[in-house]
């Protein structure tokens, strides 16, 4: 079974894929000579600057270039930002899957990493799209082959983030979103540090969170109790995250919008602000 899985390529990618972002320019040019030659007697006398209103545009630009002492580059002043890794986590039942399903629709250019899991597939889920459903033996063989960036035993089932998918998509310039439980987020923080963006998703109140789990109708009484008591404990980890998104009852779209704003703001950060550029992540 595991051989079939590996031979048929571990990564079941959602197709068709949107076009990847445009590749970055390889050079970054900036007019460095600006005023450094002022007073240099060897410099040829600058072309007189014609009237700003009446002159022809290219004539004016040539005269300005000549006065400045360098030509104006049409390359972007700031190269395209590096691909971003966004880690979405939060207690059970807060709406992580629901949020990601909605984000998928609004941001088709993001790659959503398909987590491998040994838990049974829920009726609404599609193998290879929502999760990669594997047996326990298959999962453990993948562990032996060091195929996971992070994996954990969550409520009796294994879940793991396949490395190769992240490498492949980041190499093509895609931003990637990972969905992990709280222990997974802690491990990923150690592996990725500040080069990934960690988002903690929470419900507005405990009662909302419990109601969502009950209404989802996927748990036994026992597993419901474990999830609820774990969730209370997990709320303490919120301070280790970069952002908190509250998924208020009936307002999933607001949570999606906030997450999109976070992604946009992270992409717009000045290059020096973030730590190591995300696409230089050492995923071994
Ligand atoms: N804002 C919301 N208001 C009401 N119900 C919601 C909201 N967001 C999600 N839900 C519902 O809450 C239930 C739990 O959501 P979901 O399965 O996405 O949680 P999860 O965090 O992925 O849980 P788990 O970690 O256990 O897989 C689902 O039935 C989902 O449709």
From TrEMBL:
It comes from the Eukaryota. This is Uncharacterized protein. It comes from Trifolium pratense.
């Amino acid at each position: 079974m595991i051989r079939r899985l590996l031979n048929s390529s571990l990564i079941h990618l959602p197709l068709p894929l949107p076009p990847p972002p445009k590749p970055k320019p390889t050079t970054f040019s900036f007019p460095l000579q600006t005023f450094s030659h002022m007073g240099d007697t060897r410099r040829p006398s600058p072309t007189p600057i014609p009237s700003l209103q009446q002159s022809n545009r290219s004539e004016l630009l040539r005269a300005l270039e000549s006065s400045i002492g360098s030509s104006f580059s049409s390359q972007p002043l700031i190269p395209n930002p590096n691909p971003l890794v966004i880690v979405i986590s939060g207690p059970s039942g807060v709406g992580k899957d629901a949020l990601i399903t909605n984000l998928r629709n609004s941001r088709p250019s993001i790659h959503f990493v398909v987590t491998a899991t040994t838990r049974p597939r829920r009726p609404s889920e599609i193998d290879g799209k929502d999760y990669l459903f594997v047996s326990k033996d298959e999962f453990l063989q993948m562990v032996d082959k060091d195929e996971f960036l992070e994996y954990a035993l969550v409520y009796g089932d294994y879940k793991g983030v396949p490395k190769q998918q992240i490498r492949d998509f980041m190499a093509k310039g895609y931003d990637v979103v990972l969905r992990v439980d709280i222990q997974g987020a802690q491990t990923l923080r150690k592996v990725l540090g500040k080069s990934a963006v960690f988002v903690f998703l929470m419900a507005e109140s405990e009662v909302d969170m419990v109601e969502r789990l009950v209404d989802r109708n996927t748990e036994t009484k026992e597993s419901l109790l474990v999830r609820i008591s774990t969730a209370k404990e997990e709320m303490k980890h919120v301070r280790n995250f970069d952002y908190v998104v509250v998924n208020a009852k009936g307002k999933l779209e607001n949570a999606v919008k906030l997450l999109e704003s976070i992604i946009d703001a992270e992409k717009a950060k000045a290059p020096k602000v973030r730590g190591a550029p995300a696409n230089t992540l050492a995923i071994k």
